[in-house]
Design a protein that fits this description.
Length: 318
């Protein structure tokens, strides 16, 4: 019988990080995205623990019950990777397999790039790796004449926070239902779109589960997570030493066919480029009909793929 999940706080990279852990065996760390929590991995935690892994699911920096430093620069990619490096040490381990979704996927790509010695295998959900471009991402958007992409809308401290915190229930219903206004923001209606429109929950999340997210975001607000976006250009600058680096660790990529992140010109180009810049890619699984919140929406298929991958890489590493 797998032990029940335990919650506790640890100190890593100068912050207090809240986590849930369950099971014994090789360490597996799961990193969530925005606007999420460690709770987003509620279907994966027991399944992976039961299969013989020590599974650790933190609230990431700025989210939930983990510290949220006030400085924007405190959320740059070096600090975020540093949180994972420090977490492995705080847990008394020497290596960990990383699994990440959304911003957690971007973090996992970066951690694998910077510390291949510490993270010998990775699984990525929803966000393909993109090679470091020739200039700052926000500068590239401006040169293309784009001024209303959601990355840009999120830059000014206070603007997105005011919209999202006005009605936290509506914000999270909009995010999880996939019915935000548009990734290109109308200044009249904001990122979430028409506030009078009904946002029904999809079948994969219950009202009680939504309430967990609502309680946390009512308490913390949205600034911590938005600060991850406010380091997009800074992250480009900080990763110059790794320009052109390939990911050679064994890698699993999972996404839903209806995920907008892999659709459109940008997403399609990233998917096409993925095998070239991730030569360690072992499997690319596209789950038909699934959207962005894939580990919550299609947990059985995601868990099966993760367990097959973990078994392969752990066996190979012995």
């Amino acid at each position: 019988m797998t032990a029940q999940p335990q919650q506790r706080d640890v100190t890593t990279n100068g912050i207090r990080m809240h986590l849930i852990e369950q099971g014994e065996g090789p360490l597996v760390l799961l990193s969530h995205g925005w606007p999420e929590l460690g709770f987003s991995w509620r279907h994966q935690l027991p399944a992976l623990a039961a299969a013989g892994y020590r599974v650790v699911v933190p609230d990431m920096r700025g989210f939930g019950r983990t510290d949220a430093p006030p400085e924007i620069d405190a959320y740059n990619i070096l600090q975020l990777v540093g949180d994972l490096v420090g977490l492995v040490s705080a847990l008394g381990e020497r290596t960990a397999i990383l699994i990440g979704h959304d911003w957690g996927a971007t973090l996992t790509w970066s951690a694998a790039m910077m510390r291949p010695d510490l993270f010998p295998a990775i699984a990525i959900l929803s966000v393909p790796r993109r090679a470091r471009g020739p200039a700052r991402p926000l500068d590239i958007l401006r040169r293309q004449g784009i001024h209303n992409f959601y990355w840009q809308y999120f830059q000014e401290p206070g603007t997105a926070e005011a919209e999202f915190e006005r009605d936290v229930v509506f914000t999270l219903r909009s995010a999880f239902s996939g019915r935000v206004g548009s990734l290109f923001v109308d200044p009249k209606t904001g990122f979430l779109g028409d506030p009078s429109s009904q946002r029904d929950l999809p079948e994969w999340i219950s009202e009680d589960e939504l309430a967990v997210f609502v309680e946390n975001y009512r308490r913390t607000g949205f600034r911590g997570g938005l600060n991850w976006y406010r380091n997009i250009d800074r992250n480009w600058e900080l990763t110059a030493p790794w320009h052109g680096t390939l990911i050679r660790q064994p890698t699993l990529f999972i996404a839903g066919t209806r995920d907008p992140v892999i659709g459109g010109p940008m997403g399609e180009a990233a998917m096409k480029e993925l095998p070239a810049i991730v030569p360690g890619l072992k499997r690319q699984l596209l789950i038909e009909g699934a959207g962005h919140w894939i580990q919550q929406q299609r947990p059985q298929e995601v868990n099966a793929a993760l367990l097959d991958f973990l078994k392969e890489v752990v066996t190979a590493g012995r």
